[in-house]
Amino acid sequence: MSATSIASLVRTALPGPESLKLMARERRVLAHGAYGDWDERAFVAKGAQGSLIEDVDGNHFIDFGAGWGTNNVGNCHPEIVEVVNATMSQHGVSCWTSSAQTAQRIAAAEKLLSVCPKRTDRVVFLTTGTEADEAALRIMRRASGRPIVLTFYGQYFGLSYSGQASGSLTAEMRSDVMPLVTGYVYAPYPNPYRSPLNSSTGGGPGAATLEYIEEVILTHEVPANQVAGVIVEPVIGEGGIVVPPDDFLPGLRKLCDKYGWYLCIDEVLSGFGRCGKMWAYENWDVEPDILVVGKGISGGSMPLAAVVARGDITEKADAYVASTYSGHPAACAAAIKTIEILYRDDLFAAANTLGALALERLTALKARYPAIGDVRGKGLWVAVEFVKDRKTRERDIAFASRVNSECLKRGLYAVQDANAHLRIQPPLNIPRPLFEQGLDILADAIRVASGG
Ligand SMILES: Cc1ncc(COP(=O)(O)O)c(C=O)c1O
Predict the structure, then answer these.
(1) Does the CB atom of residue 269 touch ligand 1 within 6 A?
(2) CA contacts within 13 A on the Cβ side of 52
(3) Residue 335 and residue 292: Cα distance in Å, rounded?
(4) How far apart are alpha carbons 46 and 412 in whole angstroms?
(5) Which of 125, 160, 268 to mutate to test the pocket of ligand 1 (most atoms within 8 A of CB)?
(6) Which is the closest atom of ligand 1 to the Cα of 128?
(7) Global pTM?
(8) Please, what are the domains in the chain?
């Protein structure tokens, strides 16, 4: 499955016969909802290599999902598979208690710090992004002795209680958590396409959100000295690749400095080259005090995440935040190799080149199809949002689902979930002909869904 472009990707109706058999078994044993809606399944995957996924019926799909943002260096990168196998045959989760440590964990922390903000010098390894966000929230509160964290509507930090409390992707998703939530204040994320706020000083949505924090939250809701810090996605991922205006993150940094708050940037989905630089925040003049990383850290191999922070913060927090599998030696070895590959192969340049191509192609399509409300992105992370009406900007989830289904029939796997946008986030080293083939499929799918 290493071809650079493929003549015939999908050979059966979807789902194919073998997928259907497995899906019937799935319905008997897996919990509905936990992995999305059964009725929307198009295939059951058999494996994935590079930028292609193969299903159990022999169909192939160009991978515009990259394992939900974990495989930035491609599925089953041979060098990563090799270090994981070698480390697994060396040891498992050998050491956890105070009396022992593993060499891999130390080396991975050194490697990670070598590419992190200068002001950070401590690492805590965790297993998932959710856990790492939980840890960061505890560290911020314990170190500052302050109870409140400022967050933004539309962000996503995992499905745990504090993930759902600090993240507010959809009201429905967190309806069971909301009655229990304390310890957060919320401002609208500055979404250039859908801002509910106006700046009173003539600025754009970034300025409007920053003004809201001071004029509404700090004036009417909570005094600044009760706020431990801010948790922010530098580019919102799950909420539809929302790229903030240029004044937002630097303005937020200034507010943090003014009030003595910690700035915690979550790069779980936006990091490891996805936005054309190692970290998305590097696209602006800003540096966090705490960085949360995950997903792409181990090149799509072993579960790993981390909190990277200033040592004086972790020192003050002195928090137990790890868990049994956190910093698994094989995952740590994979992280070292992943960082090496990203820099050695300059996947940042690749991300910027292919991302610019996607933006150009989709912007041209926007001029043709009124259903496309917005096209946006950073690096190789591009979203196309569908609307019922360009004036009202009412989201059109049904249209997005039609486009997604036409893509799948033609052999393109993009990320939709229950939203009105499709996300383009392939491995950063996807061969250009395959990427262009994927964009052609997407264009064709939009044409068909538009009745063309
Ligand atoms: C920004 C962000 N933070 C945290 C998480 C949670 O990560 P995980 O699913 O590994 O727990 C996600 C998952 O999509 C995410 O996008």
Answers:
(1) yes
(2) 20
(3) 15
(4) 16
(5) 268
(6) 10
(7) 0.97
(8) 17-63+346-449 (3.90.1150.10), 78-344 (3.40.640.10)
